Amino acid sequence: MKSWILGGAACAALTALFVPISTAKGQLPITAAPDIASTQAVGDFYASRHGAPLWLKSGAGSPAARELIGVLQRASLDGFASGPALAAQAQALLIRAQTGDPGALTAADRLLSSAWVQYVQVLQTPPAGMTYADAWVKPRRDSAPSILARAEAAPSLATYVHSVSQVNPLYAQLRDAAWQAMQANGGQLDPRVLASLERARDIPPQGRFVMVDTAGARLYMIEDGRIADSMKVIVGRNDPSTQTPMLASTIYYATLNPYWHVSADMVRELIAPNVLNLGLSYLKTRGYQVMPADLNDNTLLDPSKIDWRAVAAGREMVRVRQLPGPANSMGRLKIPFPNATDIYLHDTPSKALFNQDDRSLSHGCIRLEDAERLGRWLMGREPQTASREPEQNVLLPSPVPIYVTYLTAQVDGSGRLSFVDDGYRRDEHTVASLR
């Protein structure tokens, strides 16, 4: 990020450091002006301080003001397209202050406070298409008074602004690469980057959590603001009915020696046709058990007495589960989390599929390249059982949030932007809304 210094001949160069961003079709979006409540909150904040400055305590060259103006200059990438214009306004006011206009310093300080409130609230705006399936991960939108109070209480305001603007490690990496690309391309940026940045902003800045990027088919274990580990995953196919959704939830426990509870559509579309084609031995050799459709009734049914043609046609409903074992589709470990679509993480015996570049192969759930490694990270111990009993649920030492997102813009090993296929065709909808 470019910085600027007030003083001497540098004053004349201030406006040259502002990078204009076009808002024409295909470019960065325009954001709204601050609402009345925020404007009132800024006024009340300064009244409580008897007009004392927040950003410019040490004068026009304040490090906090420099940091915030630098943040605002590239804030279009953060979804705050008014940021560069506000940075230019603040710079103009500070130039006036340098030439002996005392009111300009006061105006600049209030402008920066208003811009900071707007910027933080934009960062906290949930991305389109994200479902929040658990109370632990509900998005927050701080009020203007609380945003200003935290800034006021920061031991180092410049450090605090930098920390908040980083958002999270993956986001900061992607935005830095996008900023470099814009400088090289005269302010132009592929709109797919904006779509990925909007989604990546939803990832927390700190804590211990799992993030799954379904576009890149990769899982990340994040703690203390850094990527602790990562692995390949297999995600839902590109067909709209099998895509892995964007959702945020919380992992509370892991299931060792899991059953595979076959979904109703797979019973109809996979199990029943195979029974009709291969006979009842298909069920026995693969360890399938059949039960009534009632979730509260686990009575085992005799497969020979079921009308499998009716099941395949959807006229009759049964439940099917697969016993734990080497052939079980869940492998040795299943990691569920609350969500309405019954998406979960799980082990798999089909490890060769992870060698494929295109890993959009599942019915929606997320298969893990190394489930035991993730299990160790989540549980703090080896994910092993003392017996062969099925469905052993083990509480985690503490709940771990999980964010399933979709990032088609990536950063390669050299720090440059790269892209993966938009197999789910989500970018076109997000880009249209951003425009």
Shape: elongated
Rg result: 27 Å
* Ends apart, CA distance between termini: 25 Å
**Count of DSSP H/I helices:** 13
**Class from helix and strand fractions:** alpha+beta
Strand order of the largest sheet: 2-3-4-12-10-9-5-13
Q: Could you spell the SSE succession in H and E letters?
A: HHHHEHHHHEEEEEHHEHEEEEEHEEEH
Q: Hey, roughly how much beta strand do the residues contain?
A: 15-25%
Q: What's the overall average pLDDT, rounded? A: 89
Helix percentage: 25-40%
Q: Tell me about the largest β-sheet.
A: 8 strands, mixed, barrel
| Uncertain stretches of 5 or more adjacent residues | 1-32
Number of β-strand runs: 15
Write the layout of secondary structure elements.
Blueprint lengths: L35 H13 L14 H11 L9 H16 L3 H22 L7 E2 L11 H10 L3 H10 L2 H16 L6 H10 L7 E6 L4 E6 L2 E11 L10 E10 L3 E3 L1 H15 L2 H5 L2 E5 L15 H6 L4 E5 L10 E4 L7 E3 L13 E3 L3 E3 L2 H9 L12 E14 L3 E3 L5 E3 L7 H8 L1
Parallel strand pairs: 1-5, 2-13, 4-11, 10-12
Antiparallel strand pairs: 2-3, 3-4, 4-12, 5-9, 5-13, 6-8, 7-8, 9-10, 14-15
Helix pairs in contact: 1-4, 1-5, 2-3, 2-4, 2-6, 3-4, 8-13
Describe this structure in words.
By secondary structure, this protein is of the alpha+beta class. 35% of the residues lie in helices and 19% in strands. It contains 13 helices and 15 strands. The strands form three sheets. The protein has an eight-stranded mixed barrel with strand order 2-3-4-12-10-9-5-13. Strands 6-8-7 form a three-stranded antiparallel β-sheet. The chain has a two-stranded antiparallel ribbon with strand order 14-15. α2 packs parallel to α6 and α8 crosses α13. The N terminus is likely disordered.
